Structure formats: structure tokens, C-alpha cells
């Protein structure tokens, strides 16, 4: 699979993610058909697929899978900065919490806070960034938080 963009202009390098940096971005509408499609393929629990089962669940109505919420967060990150960055992937997520259900009709956005940044000891051309991401609903309530590391190329010397 290749990047859908024909030319890749790198706008963001490791140096652009200093500790304390906060970015707010994204706006993703959660559609009923998308909730059903994701759940049908990846998380076929009844409260993600069936209105009646969802009404009797802790969620009270049809809700998006937490994994779907993660996927929507990833899409917002790609659209806002990752596809325009010197991203080299991630060694993983340290902490992931689903705080509130996400329902069809919600609109999600994100807040990224950089917690730590350092150069990788074994590869000085690579910088590590530890961040906290918060996915917020239209009432600005956090519905998901996660913390983890990203790897970014360092800005080339001019």
C-alpha cells in the first residue's frame, strides 16, 4: 500500500514536537452506517450492531466500538499532521482508556499534548516523542485518552 498523496512535502520534523506543545485538530462526524460497518467487520458485539441489544446494555443505545474510535483518531492524526511529517511509525501505545461511549451523531476532535521528546540513543537521526492524545466529543468531553511514543526524522541540516 502506498501513500495516496503523489508528492510528499514534509512540514513537521521531530524538532516541531517540543514538550508542552499542544495541538487541537480534527472534526469527524460519527455516522450510524460507519459504526455498523466497523462493528460488523471487526467488533461484532451486539451493542455495536443491534439497537435493541444496545438499549439493554450499559451504553443505552447503539455505540461505536472503542477500536473504531481509535481508528477515527488515527485518521484525524494522519489528516492533521502525520502524513505531512517525517513520521517513522510508533513503537507502541503505553496507555489507552475509553472514557465515554461514542454514539452515531457525535462529532469528534482531538487534542495532542507532547509530554517528552528526546533523540534516540541508537539512531541519532531519529527523535522520539511521547504524547497524550485525547479524543473529545461535541460537548468537549474526553471519550478516549491514549499515551504513547512516535518516531520522527530529525530536520536535515541546511
Verbal overview:
The relative contact order is 0.24. This protein has helices at 32-42, 46-49, 51-55, 66-80; strands spanning 22-29, 92-98, 107-119, 126-136, 142-153. The chain is α+β, with helices and mostly antiparallel strands and 158 residues long. A five-stranded antiparallel β-sheet has the order 1-3-4-5-2, covered by helices on one side. The protein is built from four helices and five strands; from the N terminus they run E-H-H-H-H-E-E-E-E.
How would you sum up the global shape? elongated
User: Which topology of the domain at 14-29 and 73-153 does CATH recognise?
Assistant: Thiol Ester Dehydrase, Chain A
Helical percent range? 10-25%
Q: Which structural class do you get from the secondary structure elements?
A: alpha+beta
Termini separation comes to 32 Å
The number of helical runs is: 4
Strand content: 25-35%
Main β-sheet, spatial strand arrangement: 1-3-4-5-2
CATH class of the domain at 14-29 and 73-153: Alpha Beta
Order of helices and strands: EHHHHEEEE
Poorly predicted regions: none
Radius of gyration over alpha carbons? 18 Å
Q: Provide the residue-averaged pLDDT.
A: 95
CATH homologous superfamily assignment of the domain at 14-29 and 73-153: Hotdog Thioesterase
State the CATH architecture of the domain at 14-29 and 73-153: Roll
Give keywords:
alpha+beta, single chain, Thiol Ester Dehydrase, Chain A, five-stranded antiparallel beta sheet, 4 helices, 158 residues
Amino acid at each position: 500500500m502506498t501513500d495516496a498523496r503523489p508528492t510528499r512535502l514534509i512540514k513537521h520534523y521531530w524538532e516541531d514536537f517540543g514538550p508542552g506543545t499542544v495541538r487541537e485538530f480534527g472534526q469527524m462526524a460519527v455516522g450510524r452506517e460507519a459504526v455498523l460497518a466497523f462493528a460488523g467487520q471487526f467488533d461484532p458485539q451486539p451493542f455495536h450492531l443491534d439497537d435493541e441489544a444496545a438499549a439493554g446494555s450499559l451504553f443505552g443505545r447503539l455505540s461505536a466500538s472503542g477500536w473504531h474510535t481509535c481508528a477515527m483518531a488515527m485518521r484525524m492524526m494522519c489528516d492533521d499532521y502525520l502524513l505531512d511529517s517525517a513520521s517513522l511509525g510508533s513503537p507502541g501505545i503505553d496507555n489507552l482508556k475509553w472514557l465515554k461511549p461514542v454514539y452515531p451523531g457525535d462529532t469528534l476532535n482531538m487534542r495532542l499534548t507532547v509530554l517528552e521528546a528526546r533523540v534516540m540513543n541508537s539512531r541519532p537521526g531519529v527523535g522520539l516523542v511521547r504524547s497524550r492524545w485525547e479524543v473529545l466529543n461535541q460537548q468537549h468531553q474526553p471519550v478516549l485518552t491514549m499515551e504513547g511514543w512516535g518516531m520522527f526524522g530529525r530536520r536535515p541540516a541546511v
